[in-house]
Amino acid sequence: MSLYAVQAVLILDSAGERVLSKYYQTPRASALATSPVAEQRSFEQKLAAKTKGVNDDVLIFDGHLVVYKQLADILVYIVAPLDENEVLIFQTLTTLRDVIDNALNHRVDKSNVLDRYDCVALAVDSVVDNGIILSNDSALTSERLTRSADEELTMPTVDFSETGFKSMFDFAKGRLAQAVRHQLV
Question: Which spans are transmembrane here (predicted)?
Fold first, then answer.
């Protein structure tokens, strides 16, 4: 198990054509990340053919651990090294599915993914960035994605006096308590 748990996130249509793909160049990356686009597309086509009509969620394919889910007319895949924890990768896929579903207002299909491509790409980047799993909490990640800019919390100005440090400590204590309450809900 490593910090760099994901080698690729792929969203393919039912014909195996690329809708969104992100290959990560990490210390544990396979040759896929640096291979030409034609080889990546060939990998995607073979993967789609292998999973077409199969309702399994986890498989070993071409030296990779692959977890996938079908959402309407698209398939979402996460490709990881063989030695990675499949439960962790599957939970990441479930989180990604839920975040995409929320970002698209529960209307997940190829046309909506293409229409709201920016939201889907942001959802993928909010869950996995550069091969590192950032979040497995779909509710928190969805909330962050749907929060408007004016709702963002602002940091108070920093005052380096004794009262300033107490204020910073109180602010941090409040944020920590809020995060703990959110995790318990």
Answer: none
Please tell me the distance from the alpha carbon of residue 12 to that of residue 97, in angstroms, as a whole number: 13
CA dist 165 and 36 (Å) reads 53
- Domain coordinates of the chain in residue numbers? 8-146, 153-184
In the chain, the amino acid numbered 109 is D
In this structure, are residues 130 and 33 in contact, taking their beta carbons and an 8 Å threshold? Answer: no
Which H/E stretch holds residue 14? Answer: none
Q: What is the pLDDT of residues 29-42, one digit of tens each?
A: 677 778 889 999 99
Give the number of other CB atoms < 10 A from CB of residue 14: 13
CATH number of 8-146: 3.30.450.60
- What count of Cα atoms within 13 Å lies in the side-chain half-sphere of residue 39? 9
- Whole-model pTM: value is 0.75
Amino acid at residue number 165: F
